[in-house]
Amino acid sequence: MSKTRKAASRPPIDMIDSEAERLAGLALSVARRFPAVSALLLRETERARLHSAAAISPDTVTMGSTVEFVDDSNGKPRTVTLVYPPDADIARGRISILTPVGAALIGLRTGQSILWPDRYLTVLGVQRAVPS
Known about the structure:
Elements: H1 3-8, E1 14-16, H2 17-29, H3 35-47, E2 49-51, E3 66-71, E4 77-83, E5 94-96, H4 100-105, E6 113-116, E7 119-127
Helix pairs in contact: 2-3
GO molecular function: DNA binding; kinase activity; RNA polymerase binding
InterPro entries: GreA/GreB_C_sf, Tscrpt_elong_fac_GreA/B_C, Tscrpt_elong_fac_GreA/B_fam
Keywords: Kinase, Transferase
């Protein structure tokens, strides 16, 4: 692995404080059914720098964000919206936070990359959800 990829394996991430709390609870609630993604998501909520929704950078992936990213395994850009499990719909590009890709993207900013756990993802752009 290159030094660049090693350094980017767990870049600094930011989360909205209320989302981090909800995501930690969600991860704990599914730990028996999905132990791997639960552990990964919990680790991310624990290491994230927390901000209010008003203070977080607009180029940070939060719940409801539409994210364009590239997976180095195939080099193809992909656009998805990050959602909670009940709202997931792969056919519409709505991926659950409880998928490995969803858990990898949360908290990243445009331009950041992460090795997670067996793929290398780079965020190309973020469009934040408009509060309803």
